[in-house]
Amino acid sequence: MQNDVLIVTGAASGLGAAAARLLAEKGARIVAADIDKGNLEAVVESIRTNGGDAVSRVTDVSKAEEVKALVDFAVETFGTLDGIFNNAGVRDGTHFTEVTPESYHDHLAINQHGVYYGMHYAAKKMRELNVQGGRIVNTASIRSFFGAKKSFRYSAAKAAVENMTKSGADALAEDGIRVTAIAPAFIDTALLKHVPEERRKRLEKKHLRGKLLSAEEVAKVVVFLFSEDSVAINGSTVLADDGFLAIH
Q1: Which of 11, 184, 49, 27 is closest to 19 using CA atoms?
Q2: What pTM was estimated for this model as a whole?
Q3: What's the number of CA atoms in the CB half-sphere (13 Å) around residue 22?
Q4: Of 116, 117, 121, 154, which one is the catalytic site residue?
Q5: How far, in Å, CA of 38 to CA of 214, rounded?
Q6: For 13, what's the count of Cα atoms within 13 Å in the CB-facing half-sphere?
Q7: What backbone phi and psi angles, to 5 degrees, belong to 138?
Q8: Residue 154: active-site member
Q9: What is the tens place of the pLDDT at every residue in 218-246?
Q10: pLDDT tens, 40-53?
Q11: Over the chain, what is the mean pLDDT?
């Protein structure tokens, strides 16, 4: 992973920020992307302070042209591209009956189409550069495998990501590009700060250790998927859920 050029989307906070930092610690050169410019620059600065190499690029992954520009920027900055972590996304929480066509499409534009754009433009660039051992890692979810009345859009998008990972791995195998995904359960990030304490306690009990996952714990699995140690894993979605699906 030393000197590998890796794009991380959704890098301003949570899992994306943790993954960007850990990948940089392993020697990767990071292109951190997010729509949150302030927090994004803070993450990049923290990487540099710790001796890592990182640059930032404000990017809206729901816009194909911005994701293409992100990939081009990575190559212009570092001269190559070895992989991308398609992590940017938004949570749901709207009851199915209140989901409008507009909000449905807006949600999928980020959580599903944004992953496609990242896969597409990164793979195209790695093929163009004849990169050996390219890697694409997507953020799926435990919601890829089951639904909920207030998670219709999110579950639909994440189920798509799980299958896009399979199809992408098959399509890109001949180019030596490995495609995997990670499916976390509930991570203790700012996205859950609005959750009432009673519901939070119920969520904690659904994990075998009786607590929410930390972003760093899940990021370690992401680092593994980018490493050569995971070369036998391709087209698979790896659960990082502390047993959530095993018991529910």
Answers
A1: 11
A2: 0.96
A3: 20
A4: 154
A5: 22
A6: 13
A7: -110, 150
A8: yes
A9: 999 999 999 999 999 999 999 999 999 99
A10: 999 999 999 999 99
A11: 95
List phi, psi (to 5°) of 6: -125, 130
User: Which CATH superfamily includes the segment(s) 5-247?
Assistant: NAD(P)-binding Rossmann-like Domain (3.40.50.720)
Beta strands in the chain (DSSP E): 5-9, 29-34, 53-58, 83-86, 135-139, 178-184, 237-240
Provide the angle, in degrees to the nearest 10, between the axes of the packed helices 152-172 and 101-111: 40
Rounded distance between C-alpha atoms, residue 142 and residue 156, angstroms? 12
> How many Å apart are CA 215 and CA 18, to the nearest integer?
6
The length of the chain in residues reads 248
Task: Please report, for the chain, the start and end positions of each structural domain, with discontinuous segments joined by +.
Answer: 5-247
Alpha helices per DSSP H over 54-151: 64-78, 101-111, 113-128
Q: Give the Cβ contact number of residue 157 at 10 Å.
A: 27
Return the number of other C-beta atoms located less than 10 Å from residue 125's C-beta.
Answer: 19
Structure tokens belonging to residue 75: 């190559």
Q: How far is CA 37 from CA 13, 16, 150, in A?
A: 11, 14, 29
